[in-house]
Amino acid sequence: MLNIALPKGRLGDKVYEMLKTIGYECDDIQSDTRKLIFVNEKCGVKYFLAKPSDVATYVEYGAADIGVVGKDILVESESDVYELLDLNIGKCRMAVAGRNDYVEDINRPVRVATKFPNVARKYYRSKNREIDIIKLSGSIEIAPVLNMSDVIVDIVETGTTLKENDLSVFEEIFPISARLIANKSSYKFKTDEIDTIVSKLRNNVK
Ligand code: PRP
Q1: N or C, where is the chain less crowded by C-beta within 10 Å?
Q2: Which residues of the chain have pLDDT under 70?
Q3: What is the pTM of this model?
Q4: How many domains does the chain have?
């Protein structure tokens, strides 16, 4: 039995469709239910629906053998897992953004509001720039608008949230897409099963 952690929500739905296409269906998953675990004995799969930001943790601890997670979460969590495949969906980018009229004061640290403190720290360290992190958990765009931060480090997909709040992208940090990840010891003991999924998925990546 292969345990697969999927992110709850739109990305998880897309990933499930890909897995269904290659023969790992588990139809209950698409029914209107609050259940979080779905098994298909015939296909040898058990799916868990996890909070997207927790998928890498389930995989790292071995509760799931494989999982699908955004590159943003993978980089932020620094999880000790194998990254097996870029699924080329859930595409967006990690960026520094701020008010259109922002002027940097180089004599003090940059105040950075973010859900991704590790990403922000690493990025500014690489630029040798001191920062103060303001950790938030959502609606990060409010921080610079209210002058609580100078900039944000956040995900930009369509750019609509930034535009509608008079903010713009200053720098792009890295591109993001969904990645198939595996627990390191699961990969050792279930190599064939996992490799089979990887190669079938690879053929379906657009
Ligand atoms: C993400 C991100 C931005 C928004 C970007 O937030 O943090 O706020 O999406 O998308 P856009 O460029 O298409 O406007 P999410 O919807 O995950 O909610 P959150 O603010 O609660 O984190």
Answers
A1: C
A2: none
A3: 0.94
A4: 2
